């Protein structure tokens, strides 16, 4: 493809080569003199802590940002990428962490969206269907072209994103944290697809924070730390410990150290809880569960089996039936007194699953976000006024104690990286001094250094005698953090195990809805 | 989308929008064979060239501050209150009833009482659309527009059939009693020995309007209620996570919004006409939308934008008076300003971003060549 550039000397040019890319946002240097070279037909991993500059680098490659210095070579040819259209023309396809799909449209309509030929839709759709089926065949990416995207599972929606890129003749595919929203099974399927793409000669760049994924699938890996590329290695010649060290710049404990739990009296008692969602579907179908002081109860399960609705009902913003007792006192589940404020006053703090839509207000300053859910507390209350100075002061302390970067209380929440956003939420909820902490997906989209930190904070809270209910789709996380594990499937509890006495295989079966004693 | 620096967003974008509107207005004036320079001169001298001109400009400004604030408060909670016109009319009704039927011997007493009546009536007119939105999900844009028509019909009926003095043919209330007369700016300035056009309608309401701006700023950025309103406006999901009741936020934002619209009556009804006439609001409720858009829903922005529209109103009237430019053209100019500052805001923004990118590329180009 194209005339060979200066970079070709005997061998094939790299599919992508970056030379000396730098980019700063005001005083923050997001990328500093970054050079990488990815050979065609390989899978290249980019790993690094949140805020290390991975996403900035990929945004430059996809034309969202313009680099301050440096150049991009595609197949040995210097290429300017002023916008995403240029990136697509250059054969780059991007699969974002948050999909860019029109949910009420069919798969086929989504695929041709923006790439229609001519004003009439029908001929384009006919041609597109043939091409789409060919692509699905070639890359083993089976999706029904006529299915409505909103009805598809997350894993299948991601396939549609990949198909969209392939349909636009991408031969370099960038995936940003692709497994963040997938179940373990779906992630395995995705990796099979990526391997297949590699076989067909496509080049894949995988951005992730999960060491295991890097080890499992990539050929080469680059590590980023604080805007710099600290290492580029052959995956076969490295291991998770070494990579983790490059990422955070120090030795990282890969195993979570914790003392055995000393559970006290039950603080949270749930009896026959039922939750129906807005569209009238019953999502939680009669759950009974206790969480005692000084223990972490983990809820494992594939996403979408009622965990979200359970957390919402406990957090006070989804109506429910049944009973919830907090510290032995029954709380109302609907009508007046059933809201987030009342639950917080009763002693519940809540790290929601979705920090973008619930946990934070992206346009608010970091310090304003510290008031979210707590703006009526006496410490911030001055008659009808809110004590902004007190909020700012609290925020400064929390930013220090939770090592939030950049340490600027005036930055809008949306300008922090995912891990630092999560630290803000966790700081707010833990330091509100709750009796019970609800934690949903505490480390989703969060890097290793921060994961370790967040896990230790949660365990410290447990050791302080608080009751913690953890919901996570990361089985590994549930197992390492919890004292007791409960598996949810289809709105019901499939089983309960002591974390120390079970393993991923047993829980995996329960998560798939295979009850004990069933022929598996 | 790349973000522009804040100073560009707040200053350059509105100024460029305004210049574009002015240029196109000039072209239109040229096209009908008139002199745009003369037109601009007429507008500036008519609106800003004398204390009489200022008196009218500031009078209109006062109206637009109230309605602009009203739209802004609702905007902060992500509600689009298009009903400012109707709420201001009904606010005028409340004010007229208070002035006519309550014993109010002096303006010091009359002003707060009448203003309270105007606020309550304006808020009440916003209450039903707000409730329909909060409980039934009926969109406030639709319901508030409909309520504008209902308000107009209601006032029409009341002024013709109920409030009109029996000996009058005019669909208006009787003159308000003397105790409700508000001091004009000329009266106030006279205390300090400063001369000001006596016949200009600008009055003490201007000061009340500025105080209202400060009040809205306090409410939005310094109170717990304001925090909750802005949280709700920015993210409904985060608000419900935080325990902020959407129902309460919609009701509160719309009631304050309607009340502020209603308060406009202290200026146009109490301060100027001193009786309630038909169509007293003269479209100020709609101008408020443009004022809030241009003022970025911030009280300071609202003051500046209201001043601009006050200038356009007064300058436009002068234009119609002194030149042969037809009245309709003033509406065209005002429409262009609204179009550019309100509706085409993103076009201007994108244009400025594009210019910046081109400049950036041009600066970079020689460096690249040097390196290559």
Write the layout of secondary structure elements.
The complex is a heterodimer of chains A (520) and B (372).
Chain A: E1 16-25, E2 28-38, E3 43-48, H1 54-61, E4 69-74, E5 77-78, H2 84-89, E6 92-95, H3 107-112, H4 121-139, H5 154-167, E7 172-176, H6 184-199, E8 203-208, H7 211-217, E9 220-225, E10 228-234, H8 240-248, E11 266-276, E12 282-292, E13 295-300, H9 307-315, E14 320-326, E15 329-331, H10 340-346, E16 348-351, H11 355-359, H12 366-369, E17 381-382, E18 385-386, H13 388-401, H14 418-430, E19 436-440, H15 448-463, E20 467-471, H16 475-481, E21 484-489, E22 492-498, H17 504-511
Parallel strand pairs in A: 3-8, 3-9, 6-7, 7-8, 13-20, 13-21, 16-19, 19-20
Antiparallel strand pairs in A: 1-2, 1-4, 4-5, 9-10, 11-12, 11-14, 14-15, 17-18, 21-22
Chain B: H1 6-31, H2 36-48, H3 51-76, H4 84-101, H5 107-136, H6 140-161, H7 185-191, H8 205-222, H9 224-234, H10 236-242, H11 246-263, H12 265-273, H13 284-294, H14 299-322, H15 327-343, H16 345-371
Helix pairs in contact in B: 1-15, 1-16, 2-3, 2-14, 3-8, 3-11, 3-13, 3-14, 4-5, 4-6, 4-11, 4-12, 4-13, 5-6, 5-11, 8-9, 8-14, 9-10, 13-14, 14-15
CATH superfamily of the largest domain in chain A: P-loop containing nucleotide triphosphate hydrolases
Round the mean pLDDT of chain A to the nearest integer and report it. Answer: 88
- The tally of strands of chain A reads 22
Give the overall shape of chain A: globular
Query: Structural class of the helices, strands and pairings of chain A?
Result: alpha/beta
Strand line-up across the major sheet of chain A: 6-7-8-3-9-10
What does the radius of gyration of chain A come to? 24 Å
CATH architecture of the largest domain in chain B: Orthogonal Bundle
Distance between the termini of chain A: 51 Å
CATH architecture of the largest domain in chain A: 3-Layer(aba) Sandwich
What does the main sheet of chain B amount to? none
Structural class given helices, strands, pairing of chain B? mainly alpha
Multimeric state: heterodimer
Shape category of chain B: globular
Point out poorly predicted stretches of chain A: 1-10
């Amino acid at each position: 493809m194209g005339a060979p550039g200066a970079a070709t000397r005997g061998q094939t040019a790299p599919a992508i080569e970056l030379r000396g890319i730098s980019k700063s946002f005001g005083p923050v240097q997001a990328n500093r003199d970054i050079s990488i070279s990815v050979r065609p037909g390989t899978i290249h991993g980019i790993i690094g802590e949140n805020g290390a500059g991975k996403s900035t680098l990929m945004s430059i490659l996809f034309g969202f940002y313009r680099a301050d210095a440096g150049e991009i070579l595609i197949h040995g040819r210097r290429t300017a990428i002023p916008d995403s259209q240029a990136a697509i023309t250059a054969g780059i396809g991007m699969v974002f962490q948050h999909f860019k799909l029109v949910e009420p449209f069919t798969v086929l309509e989504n695929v041709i969206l923006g790439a229609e030929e001519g004003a009439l839709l029908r001929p384009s759709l006919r041609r597109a269907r043939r091409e789409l089926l060919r692509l699905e065949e070639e890359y083993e990416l089976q999706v029904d072209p006529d299915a409505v995207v909103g009805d598809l599972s997350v894993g299948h929606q991601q396939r549609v994103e990949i198909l969209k890129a392939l349909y636009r003749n991408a031969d370099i595919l960038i995936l940003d944290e692709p497994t963040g929203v997938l179940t373990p099974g779906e992630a395995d399927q995705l990796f099979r697809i990526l391997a297949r793409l590699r076989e067909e000669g496509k080049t894949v760049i995988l951005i992730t924070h999960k060491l295991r994924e890097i080890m499992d699938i990539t050929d080469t890996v680059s590590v980023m730390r604080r805007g710099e590329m600290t290492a580029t290695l052959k995956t076969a010649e490295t291991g998770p410990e070494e990579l983790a060290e490059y990422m955070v710049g120090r030795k990282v404990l890969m195993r979570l150290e914790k003392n055995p739990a000393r559970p006290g009296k039950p603080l949270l008692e749930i009896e026959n809880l039922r939750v129906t969602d807005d569209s009238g579907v019953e999502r939680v179908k009669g759950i009974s569960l206790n969480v005692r002081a000084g223990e972490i109860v983990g809820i494992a399960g594939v996403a979408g089996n009622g965990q979200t609705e359970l957390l919402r009902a406990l957090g006070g913003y989804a109506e429910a039936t049944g009973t919830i007792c907090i510290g032995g006192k029954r709380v109302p589940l609907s009508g007046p007194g059933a809201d987030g404020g009342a639950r917080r006053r009763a002693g519940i703090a809540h790290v929601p699953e979705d920090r973008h839509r619930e946990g934070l207000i992206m346009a608010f300053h970091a310090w304003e976000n510290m008031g979210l859910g707590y703006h009526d507390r006496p410490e911030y209350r001055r008659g009808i006024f809110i004590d902004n100075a007190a909020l700012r002061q609290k925020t400064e302390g929390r930013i220090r104690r939770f090592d939030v970067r950049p340490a600027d209380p005036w930055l809008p929440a949306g300008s922090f990286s995912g891990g630092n956003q999560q630290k803000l939420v966790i700081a707010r909820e833990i330091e509100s001094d709750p009796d019970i902490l609800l934690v949903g997906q505490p480390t989703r989209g969060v890097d290793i250094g921060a994961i370790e930190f967040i896990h230790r904070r949660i365990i410290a809270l447990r050791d302080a005698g608080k009751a913690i209910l953890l919901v996570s789709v990361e089985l590994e996380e549930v197992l390492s953090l919890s004292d007791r594990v409960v598996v949810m499937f289809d709105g019901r509890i499939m089983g309960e195990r002591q974390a120390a006495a079970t393993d991923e295989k047993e829980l995996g079966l329960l998560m798939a809805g295979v009850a004990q004693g069933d022929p598996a | 989308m790349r973000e522009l620096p804040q100073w560009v967003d707040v200053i350059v974008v509105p100024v460029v929008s305004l210049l574009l509107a002015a240029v196109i207005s000039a072209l239109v004036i040229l096209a009908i064979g008139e002199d745009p320079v003369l037109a601009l001169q007429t507008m500036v001298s008519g609106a800003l060239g004398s204390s009489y001109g200022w008196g009218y400009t500031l009078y209109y400004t006062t109206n637009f501050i109230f309605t602009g604030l009203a739209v802004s408060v609702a905007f902060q909670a992500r509600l689009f209150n298009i009903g400012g016109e109707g709420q201001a009319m009904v606010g005028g009704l409340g004010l007229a009833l208070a002035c006519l039927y309550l014993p109010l011997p002096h303006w010091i007493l009359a002003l707060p009482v009448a203003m309270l009546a105007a606020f309550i009536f304006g808020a009440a007119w916003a209450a039903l659309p707000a409730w329909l939105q909060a409980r039934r999900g009926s969109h406030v844009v639709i319901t508030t527009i409909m309520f504008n028509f209902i308000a107009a019909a209601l006032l029409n009926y009341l002024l013709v059939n109920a409030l009109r003095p029996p000996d009058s043919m005019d669909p208006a209330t009787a003159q308000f009693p003397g105790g409700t007369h508000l001091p004009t700016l000329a009266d106030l300035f006279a205390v300090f020995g400063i001369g000001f056009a006596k016949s200009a309608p600008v009055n003490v309401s201007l000061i009340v309007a500025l105080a209202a701006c400060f009040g809205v700023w306090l409410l939005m950025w310094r109170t717990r209620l304001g925090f909750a309103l802005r949280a709700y406006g920015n993210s409904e999901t985060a608000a419900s996570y935080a325990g902020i009741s959407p129902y309460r936020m919609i009701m509160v934002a719309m009631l304050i919004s309607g009340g502020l619209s209603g308060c406009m009556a202290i200026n146009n009804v109490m301060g100027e006409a001193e009786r309630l006439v038909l169509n007293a609001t003269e479209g100020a409720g709609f101008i408020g939308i443009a004022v809030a858009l241009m003022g970025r829903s911030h009280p300071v922005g609202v003051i500046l934008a209201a001043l601009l529209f006050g200038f356009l109103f007064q300058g436009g009237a002068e234009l119609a008076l002194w030149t042969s430019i037809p009245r309709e053209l003033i509406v065209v100019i005002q429409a262009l300003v609204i179009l550019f500052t309100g509706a085409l805001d993103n076009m201007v923004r994108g244009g400025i971003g594009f210019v910046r990118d081109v400049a950036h590329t041009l600066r970079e180009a020689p460096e690249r060549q040097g390196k290559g």
